[in-house]
Amino acid sequence: MDKRTEISITIDTEFSIGGALSNPEKYKPVSESAVLCRTDGEEHGLGFLLEAFNKYNISASFFVECANYFYFGDEPMKSFVKRILDAGLDTQLHIHPCWLNFNQDKNIGTFPTNDSCAGRDYDELRKIFELCIEVFQRWTGKRPEAIRTGSLVADLNLYKVMRDLEIPLASNIALGVFQPDEPELQIYNGYTKIEGVTEFPVFSYNDMNMFGRMHIKSLQITSCSWPEMKYILWNARKLGIQNIVILTHPFEYIKKADMQYNELTRNRVNKKRLEKLCKFIAEHDQDFVSVDFSKLSQAKRAADKNCNPLLRTPSLYTIGRKIHNKINDSFWYY
Q1: 275-299 confidence digits (pLDDT tens)
Q2: How many domains does the chain fold into?
Q3: How far apart are CA 14 and CA 64, in angstroms?
């Protein structure tokens, strides 16, 4: 049995509403620019990710948003999926229900602009999932093994829908992003079975205590410094945490002047973080291994639970990260 710590890099691959729901007269949804992130003749989004994963032999899972079909049709996302699959990388299903508001097929029905997968009744959510699974199958030639909901918003009901649709894996929880109401969903790391579905949450940790209250943060390329990530990886291994899920998006590797992606420049800081993570996994292959969702072991899929105590990082890392992120956000060409 491989006792290395598994690192699952997950990329939510999605288009942007771009303000079209709040002001449709002025704005249109954004497709290609939000995924390719091309500027100065270089793809800083999808192209950069595919090159980095190939260079360091990294397995990663692209959670592909499929409800955008109801505005854009099959293209251009289908072509991006083909590039991912041609690179030998994994695809799973991501769902932002707000896109179904654009549906024009009366046989399918009408949907509100609500983008949450939580708080919906069973039948409505099941229909949304079935529609998106159908699109995913057409684009990838397979059924998804895992689903991630938009904005990582979850409740117990959606796991019942996934169970009945025979989707065995989920990655819907990131307590630093959204905290569900149900105590069963307060999961910081590891994996646990919920309504028969094995949930692999985005790794969350405590990065600061202020006035007696913990601040919970989830492990994301755009918001965590590299020293902080490296500290987490080594300490998670010491604690015996078996799987670490990391979240990113193609658009994290550019800076944009507005929500319509009219002016872009590279995000050097985030690109360096991703490259350092990939290099770290490659150089420490006795301790760590990249694993995508299609390759998660049957033992983990079958296990009821493997969750661990909340990991805490020193405040020094938090202060350094906040300063670095502030500088990066404040200066366009930093």
Answers
A1: 999 999 999 999 999 999 999 877 6
A2: 1
A3: 6
305-306 and 288-290: which strand pairing? Answer: unpaired
| 52, 274 contact by CB (below 8 A) | yes
* Residue 266: CATH number of its domain: 3.20.20.370
In this predicted structure, what is the pLDDT of residue 316? Answer: 85
Task: Give the residue numbers spanning the domain of 284.
Answer: 5-330
User: What's the confidence (pLDDT) of residue 210?
Assistant: 65
Tens of pLDDT, residues 204-257: 999 976 666 789 999 999 999 999 999 999 999 999 899 999 999 999 999 999
Q: Do 237 and 285 meet the contact criterion of CB atoms below 8 Å apart?
A: no
Distance of CA 207 to the CA centre of its chain: 20
Q: What is the pLDDT of residue 74?
A: 98
- Whether residue 89 contacts residue 62, with contact meaning beta carbons closer than 8 Å, is answered with yes
Q: What is the CA radius of gyration of the chain?
A: 19
